Amino acid sequence: MRSQQLVIRLQAVVTAAVLCAGVVATVTHDNSTRGVPVAGGQVLRLVQRAPLQIDQAASVRMDMSLHISGDGVDGSVHVEAEFDPQSKVGEGSADAAGHTLRYMQSADTLYAPIAEGQTLIYSGKHYVGLTISGGQSDQLTGSDGLGYLQLLAGAGGQVLRYETSTIDGVHVTRYHVNVDVAAALARTPEQLRSTYADQLSTLGLTTIPLDVWLDDQGSPRQLKLSLTAQGTTAEILIHLTPSDKPVHVELPSADDVYMASSAQEFAAIAYGVN
Fold it and tell me: Are 133 and 108 a contacting pair, CB within 8 Å?
């Protein structure tokens, strides 16, 4: 039971609990190197345009690791997904405490198969759904990582440039920036805005420091930050690989979906621990 409770808390809380009042955002640096201040606005504009670069891809593969600690919880969630960055249609899997949840996403709705042997409880439906829009703090927002990525549009002030390296054989440069959340929302096209960024603004979080790795075309390949709220910390590392291959996802029909009212209910039904 303790393992099941941890799974639900990780899946339902880690991407949302850090969005409640009193959030403090920090970033962890590699102390073996020092950032070099970058003069002029060219690099800053490069960082700000990074989300638009990834939005031009036909699809994006994402590998996101989240570690949550504090408030009696210490565990990790690993999410792998492939999605269309414009339509937000995609599919993926989330692993936590030895359990795997496979999900699909279409715009503002998540879907997952109902746990085996549980379909009769939900009128024979085979999928559970969750609407992730509306700015509710208990939703599984940022499930595709775009909520964090779109914050780069609000980067401002001093930019620090760190070491160059390679990710999957691609040359990248690491930058540290401070993000103005309100500016990020204002600069992001409405159809591409994430509920996650909206929540941050609504909850009064104005500035977020983070690290981003850009390739030579200015496309983001990695993002790193941590968020802390009320004694709970989530460390987040997102790896992105754009592709020119479109995503093909077979979504369930509406009459075969039981709509959950919260992230907790969604996770419990998908894992069969309700």
Answer: yes
pTM: 0.80
Q: Which residue has the tokens 């054989």?
A: 169
Q: Is the dihedral of CA 7, 116, 103, 252 positive or negative?
A: negative
Half-sphere exposure of 1 (CA within 13 A, CB side): 1
Mean pLDDT for the stretch of residues 239-253: 93
Distance separating alpha carbons of residues 5 and 270, to the nearest angstrom: 13
CA torsion angle 196 103 145 181 (round to 10): 0
Contacts of 19 (CB under 8 A, 6+ apart): 137, 141, 196, 199, 200, 203, 205, 227, 229
122 vs 150, residue with greater confidence: 122
SS in 3 state form for 187-211?
A: HCCHHHCCHHHHHHHHCCCCEEEEE
Q: What's the pLDDT band for 212 if we cut at 50, 70, 90? A: very high
Length of the chain: 274
Residue 11 CB-half CA count within 13 A = 30
Amino acid identity, position 88: K
Structural domains of the chain sorted by starting position, each given as residue range(s) with its CATH number in brackets? 2-271 (2.50.20.20)
Interior/surface letters 253-273, b for 16+ CB within 10 angstroms, e for the rest: eeeebbebeebbbbbbbbbeb
Of 178, 171, 3, nearest to 75 by C-alpha is 3
Region class of 261: left (phi > 0), else alpha (psi between -120 and 50), else beta = alpha
